[in-house]
TrEMBL record:
Entry cofactors: FAD
A Pfam family it matches: FAD_binding_3
GO molecular function, one term: monooxygenase activity
Name of the protein described by the UniProt record: FAD-dependent monooxygenase
Domain (FAD-binding): residue spans on this chain: 2-325
Keyword entries, A-Z: FAD, Flavoprotein, Monooxygenase, Oxidoreductase
Tagged with keyword ATP-binding: no
Keyword Protein biosynthesis set for record: no
């Protein structure tokens, strides 16, 4: 087989969808025998929503969630409505629902998912990987570890995972909504840590506590109602009853980052590559974009049309993003504890958020919208991604997300060169990449300050050009990212 993915969480399932869209039928191995009933994650931020929208999945996910047009930095509220660019809103949605949507789509695209199969061994050579899991010996060309912070794949591949485990005790639970908890809706800071209460579904609340400087417990020791209620009492100063939870789980203040995202034919993504304090859906958005970045590159290699170095670009592009996510979440934690010492700083930053530029910078940072891949090309748009910009085409108004759902590259011509379509010279330039590149002609828009753009399958800009630029730069970008043209 071509690709084995370890882990059927959001990252592994998103990667399975990306590969399936390109005609690759991956095998997903999940150590749990059944889909997890709990949902530790509750928010998908703008980056994740936009990536799902590019694949036609956002509406499925939104159907089980709630739009939340807000953002925060260290629980200091921001205003996404003041952004100068169009971007999606955060959606509050249980992780179990997100995984269900992604699994259904992965199966539609031909992925096989085997539950109760934990990876126990990995051996690789120059031609492939042998994976031992669930008593089976499997041969594949590539293995991707999306198996979480305690990744077996990462360990067996010899990839180190340096970082810091800070003393911290966190518990999260889902409970039926009742009057005793309603006064605590929102995120609350106390000298000892944080206490949050928020809606997680019809008649349900998500309750979590996090105490800094306290030695935590191992995940193998089940959390109890008495334990979380004692934690609440220590934080708020009096007893608060939560009722009988549907489930409880532990969470941690751990920051770790893999030294490399590739070891030969083995890759890591999501929490297997980077783990940090859970704030604002940043962990999920970073992991899902890992999958979107890697998926089309693996597919190109397996089809025999990947240019030299394409697979190596996964580490080169995503490793700095993982490092940035670790940095920005640590910065937020530093603004939360010790509260008595950082309160004056929180007040000053709250004042600064009143300035549009500061608000925008923090919204983009917290939502993963500030990511731009470094490129040799010095054109300002190269390496960045646009949201669901509306496009006026000869066939009507569509969004940039809608014309990206095939998962191929996209040449977007906004030059209005002719009423009938794009410049014949440009069409001739891309003809050798037919089947790898779609061409869309639309009217100019102030939301995209360029006449023409070449977008990679992950939506990142690979090239921009004006009407008088010619096609040589376009051809070079096509060859750099999509390989040699067909004969």
């Amino acid at each position: 087989m071509d690709v084995v993915i370890a882990g059927a969480g959001p990252v592994g399932l998103m990667l399975a969808c990306e590969l399936g869209l390109a005609g690759i039928r991956p095998l997903v191995l999940e150590r749990r025998a059944v889909a997890r009933p709990d949902s530790p994650g509750m928010a998908i931020n703008a980056t994740t929503v936009e990536l799902l929208d590019r694949r036609g999945l956002a509406d499925r996910v939104r159907a089980g969630g709630l739009e939340w047009p807000q953002a925060h930095f260290a629980h200091l509220m921001l205003d996404p409505a003041r952004l100068r660019e169009r971007h999606a809103s955060t959606v509050l949605v249980p992780q179990a629902h997100l995984e269900s949507c992604l699994e259904a789509r992965a199966r539609e695209l031909g992925a096989e998912i085997r539950r109760g199969h934990e990876v126990t061994g990995v051996r690789q050579d120059g031609s492939g990987v042998t994976v031992y899991a669930g008593g089976d010996e499997l041969s594949c060309r590539y293995l991707v570890g999306c198996d979480g912070a305690n990744s077996v794949v990462r360990r067996l591949a010899g990839i180190s995972f340096p970082g810091v485990d800070a003393p911290f005790h966190g518990i999260v639970a889902e409970v039926d909504a009742d009057g005793e908890l309603m006064p605590y809706l929102g995120a609350h800071q106390y000298p000892g840590g944080v206490f949050t209460v928020g809606p997680s579904g019809p008649g349900l609340l998500r309750v979590s506590t996090g105490e800094f400087g306290v030695q935590g417990w191992d995940d193998e020791i089940p959390a109890t109602v008495d334990e979380i209620e004692a934690s609440i009492a220590r934080l708020v100063g009096h007893d608060v009853r939560i009722g009988t939870p549907h489930w409880l789980a532990r969470w941690h203040n751990v920051t770790r980052h893999a030294e490399r995202y590739r070891a030969g034919r083995v890759f890591v993504a999501g929490d297997a590559a980077h783990v940090h304090f859970p704030l604002g859906g940043q962990a999920l958005s970073t992991g899902v974009e890992d999958a979107v970045n890697l998926g089309w590159k693996l597919a190109a290699d397996l089809a025999g049309r990947a240019p030299a170095g394409l697979l190596d670009s996964y580490h080169r592009e995503r490793h700095p993003v993982g490092a940035r996510a670790c940095l920005t979440t640590r910065a937020q934690v530093a603004l939360m504890h010790p509260l008595l010492e950082v309160s004056p700083l929180r007040e000053v930053i709250s004042e600064l958020i009143g300035y549009d530029d500061v608000n925008e910078h923090l919204v983009r940072m917290a939502g993963g919208l500030d990511v731009t891949y470094a490129a040799d090309d010095d054109r300002p748009l190269v390496g960045r991604r646009f949201g669901a910009v509306p496009l006026s085409t000869p066939d009507g108004v569509v969004s940039l997300a809608e014309v990206s759902r095939a998962g191929r590259g996209l040449l977007l011509d906004l030059s209005a060169h002719t009423a009938a379509g794009t410049d014949p010279g440009v069409l001739a330039a891309v003809s050798g990449w037919s089947g790898r590149i779609d061409v869309v002609v639309a009217s100019p828009t102030t939301e995209i300050p360029a006449d023409r753009l070449l977008l990679r399958p992950d939506g990142r800009v690979a090239w921009t050009g004006g009407r008088g630029d010619g096609v040589q730069g376009l051809k070079e970008a096509l060859q750099t990212w999509f390989g040699d043209p067909a004969a």
